[in-house]
């Protein structure tokens, strides 16, 4: 019975380079989504103030 060995699968640890690359990719994706959201909100605000300057809209409630 001496010397009987069972082949086990060896698990490798996490790859540091792979984790860094995945982190950078996810960070860039989240940053892009945030930037697009910010640009959209900025466009809405700019449109609002342009209409306000032109006199097409007002922020004063109409009196009855």
TrEMBL record:
<keyword id="KW-0812">Transmembrane</keyword>
<feature type="transmembrane region" description="Helical">
    <location>
        <begin position="20"/>
        <end position="37"/>
    </location>
</feature>
<keyword id="KW-1133">Transmembrane helix</keyword>
<protein>
    <recommendedName>
        <fullName>Cytochrome c oxidase subunit 5C</fullName>
    </recommendedName>
</protein>
<comment type="similarity">
    <text>Belongs to the cytochrome c oxidase subunit 5C family.</text>
</comment>
<keyword id="KW-0496">Mitochondrion</keyword>
<dbReference type="GO" id="GO:0005743">
    <property type="term" value="C:mitochondrial inner membrane"/>
</dbReference>
<keyword id="KW-0999">Mitochondrion inner membrane</keyword>
<keyword id="KW-0472">Membrane</keyword>
<comment type="function">
    <text>This protein is one of the nuclear-coded polypeptide chains of cytochrome c oxidase, the terminal oxidase in mitochondrial electron transport.</text>
</comment>
<dbReference type="InterPro" id="IPR008432">
    <property type="entry name" value="COX5C"/>
</dbReference>
